[in-house]
Every structure is written in C-alpha cells, then in structure tokens.
Amino acid sequence: MSIQTLAQEAKHLCRRQHSGVLGTQSTSMPGYPFGSIVPFVMDHHGDVLIYISDIALHTRNLKADNKVSLTIFDATEADSQANARVTIMGNAELADSEDNERLYFQLFPQARTYQQTHDFHFYKIKTVRVRYIGGFGKIHWIDANTWHTPPAQWHESSQSMIDHMNQDHQDAMGEILRHYANVKSTTIAMISVFAEGAHYLTDEQKITFIPFEEPCTDAMSIRKALVNQTHAARAANEVKHDNTITS
C-alpha cells in the first residue's frame, strides 16, 4: 500500500470525526503535556481549524508554545487499540478570516453564538508531520508534503457546487446516503465538499461523511465522482428493493 493511499485513509478518518484531543505544553505545569477535547474542521489543504476561547487553558498554552498535536479517533469503536487513529503535529497560528468562518460554521453552525463572547478566535494547526495507525502492524509516518493537498481553483467555488447539489439533486443525495451509509432521510443537505469526499446533513441533524473512491483534483473530477456514486447507489438500492419484495 502506497503512502499516498495511507494518507487518504487517514484523511477519511479525520473527515468522519468532528472532535479530537488537543495536546499543548502546559504553562502551569511546565514540562507536562496538557490534553483537551476540541471540535475541529480540516480545511482543503489538510490543515486543522479550531475555534477556541482566549480564556481557555489550552489557548494560553499554545500562545506560549505553538507546537501542538491533535489526536483523532473513532470513540464509538469497541477496541481502541485495534482501530485507526491519527495524530497531527504542527504549529498553531491565529487564523481569523471569513473563509475559515464559513468552513467551520458549515459543520458547526451552533458555534456562531460564540462570536457574541468576543474572545473566541480561529487557530490553524499548520501540519508538520502526521502519525497514522490503521490497526495492529499498520503504523506509518506521513510527511507534510504527502499530507497536504495542493491549492486548487475549485476550492474557492466549492459553495456553488454545494448549492447546485442542494437545489437540483436531492434524489441523488438520498440514494448516496442510503447506499453508502445506510441512512434514510426525507431532507438532505450537502454542507461541504473536499477532495476526499463530502459531508451531508440529514433531517435528524446528523452529519455523515461519504468519501470519494479517489481524491479529486478539479471540479470535473468531483462531478464524475458524484455521478459515479449516484449510479452505483441507485443500482445497489434497486437490488435491495427487489430482494425485499421477493423475500
């Protein structure tokens, strides 16, 4: 398995999860690491965005030493030792911007209320190195060059893709979620799209990430990936429906 494929696997895990353990260097207990749970979003490039308060201990820690880590894993799995996890190590930098607001609030709209407190800011963890453990014996370092997705023009127009899917392709999104995630919902909204896949919000307010088979590098490849997913989902769902009728 190539390191590019491993990086893709690790990114899929990061896209599926929405919180991780932030590791900072303690200022009150020098020399000791301090861990805290934070929501996060991974941007198009592969760097992590967090939205944190100035009064939080982890914020004071990273302001004193910006070398941090974020450990991401699926807490719903039974055997944490056998399951995949990712640790992203990097440098935290202040990153307040409209683009980062839009990206973060797409997944965490409730976090908009924190803006009223005036002490919340965005920080970006600029990835230096990634540790990926895919299970027993599947342990790899991934360097920043392999991890990062090069900037692409379509990143700036991703919202138009999302709007198009939500306005014109409700049926297709329903088929995709039913097949790939066993999720049935009367109302579905695509809320983000990345090279690795897309996030969908159901009428139960559940966010589901559906990965693409291969990373997409341009708008046309994303369109093809969504079309392929729709065709595969419709074919599979028709078979399931026929089996239900005849059984």
Provide an overview of this structure:
- With 247 residues, the protein is α+β, with helices and mostly antiparallel strands.
- It is built from 7 helices and 11 strands.
- Strands 1, 2, 3, 4, 5, 6, 7 and 8 form an 8-stranded antiparallel beta sheet that branches. The protein has a 3-stranded antiparallel beta sheet with strand order 9-10-11, sandwiched between helices.
- It is globular and about 60 Å long.
- The termini are far apart.
List the helices and strands and how they pair.
Blueprint: H1 3-16, E1 19-25, E2 33-39, E3 41-42, E4 48-53, H2 57-64, E5 67-73, E6 85-94, H3 98-107, E7 120-135, E8 138-143, H4 144-147, H5 158-168, H6 170-181, E9 188-194, E10 197-202, E11 207-211, H7 219-246
Antiparallel strand pairs: 1-2, 1-5, 3-4, 4-7, 5-6, 6-7, 7-8, 9-10, 10-11
